[in-house]
Design brief:
Length: 389
């Protein structure tokens, strides 16, 4: 590890957070930013250079003497010695500033970026604050009750995603209440709480101001951060709800190809007056299922596969005295569509829609006995006359 990276690791989280912000604004990594500061100083050691640079940046620090060296922030409000821990003394979790938000690299949705970042930071802060309260033996903090959020879309309410959102909202309320809770921290507990503070400050647009306020008035800084967490939680909830709603809507708007075909064929069959099964059709014609199936296969009756079942449009069954028969002339139309390759569903479409040559729906013309007129209209519909010409 380079000397500059070691210096970066030695910084107190609040000082490190401020330095990270400066590095981000300069478009540099933290170690490169520190190196530039040090190299720009004249004939002073690297520790003194970084100490002076941080002080000039508005972050009062002082160098510590001893085996590990390092720095501490000057926080007049505290009696706690805020020294920076070396790696083997580190409490809490590594602090990643805005430049360490990996979520924006993984998703293309700003709303999902916000949900991911908020979720990660809230849970990390909750762990740190709970550890701080445990260390300080805080016994009067009550975990708040939080009702299940109502998210639009009945399916979304039962999803794993919404369970995670609800859990994050619960943690957020807990963390917010912990920030404003009155307690007396031990030095170790206060270090944990400050680490949580730094993590949470990244969720607010006032990060720099909050970190500076924390240098001289921790209770007030925690109170102000709690207000910002309320706003960030509202934004998180809105983004989470919007993602769930849009996802549910997109699933409805973009059905599968099979579902689209089923919807279209059902609608077409409804316009044709409905359909009957092979068994029902055979009963109407007083014949066997096998005989009717053969007629459908040969094209002397109209039948289409609907899913795994054969369906026959009801309109083709007409009364002939005391018997029921297939409407005369239908076989000629079905065979025209079969030979053209258009298929049976196209034949049904033709028979149902009003044809300009007939000024009526072809199925009605067939029922009236206008067989030749319907055949000519079908040939024109299929372009057969043009092909022969």
């Amino acid at each position: 590890m380079s000397d500059y990276a070691t210096i970066a690791n030695d910084l107190h989280p609040v000082a490190r957070a401020a330095a990270e912000l400066r590095a981000l604004q300069a478009g540099q990594s933290l170690s490169d930013y520190l190196a530039a500061l040090i190299l720009s100083s004249s004939s002073v050691g690297s520790h003194d250079a970084i100490l002076g640079a941080l002080t000039a940046a508005g972050i009062p620090t002082e160098r510590m003497e001893g085996r590990h060296g390092g720095y501490r922030l000057l926080l007049p409000h505290h009696s706690t010695d805020w020294h920076v821990r070396s790696n083997d003394e580190l409490w809490g979790v590594p602090i990643g500033g805005p430049s360490h938000n990996v979520f924006s690299e993984l998703t293309a949705s700003p709303a999902l970026d916000l949900v991911c970042s908020f979720n990660a930071r809230i849970h990390n802060a909750a762990v740190l604050m709970s550890a701080a309260f445990h260390e300080a033996a805080v016994s009067d903090f009550e975990v708040p009750k939080f009702r299940q959020p109502q998210v639009r879309g009945s399916k979304a309410k039962q999803s794993w995603y919404i369970h995670i959102v609800h859990d994050c909202l619960t943690r957020s309320r807990e963390v917010r209440n912990a920030l404003v809770h009155h307690w007396t921290p031990t030095p170790r507990a206060e270090r944990l709480a400050i680490d949580a503070f730094v993590i949470l400050s990244d969720l607010t647009p006032a990060r720099t101001e909050l970190l500076r306020l924390c240098q001289y008035d921790r209770p007030r800084a925690f109170m102000e951060l709690a207000k910002h967490i309320d706003l960030a939680t509202d934004q998180f909830r809105l983004s989470a709800d919007l993602l769930a709603e849009v996802e549910a809507a997109s699933q409805q708007i973009e059905p599968s190809d099979e579902q689209r075909f089923a919807d279209i064929s059902n609608a077409l069959l409804d316009r044709a007056g409905g359909g009957v099964s092979l068994t029902e059709g055979a009963t109407l014609l007083k014949t066997s299922r096998q005989a009717l199936h053969k007629r459908v296969k040969l094209g002397s009756a109209l039948g289409m596969m609907q899913g795994t079942e054969l369906t026959l449009p009801r309109f083709q069954f007409v009364a002939e005295g005391e018997k029921t028969a297939v409407v005369p002339g239908l076989a000629k139309i079905v065979k025209l569509f079969d030979s053209s390759g258009a298929g049976r569903w196209s034949a049904l479409q033709f028979l149902v829609d009003t044809d300009p040559n007939l000024a009526d729906a072809p199925r009605h013309a067939l029922a009236e006995g206008r067989i030749d007129d319907v055949v000519h209209a079908a040939r024109a519909y299929l372009g057969a006359d043009a092909d022969e010409a």
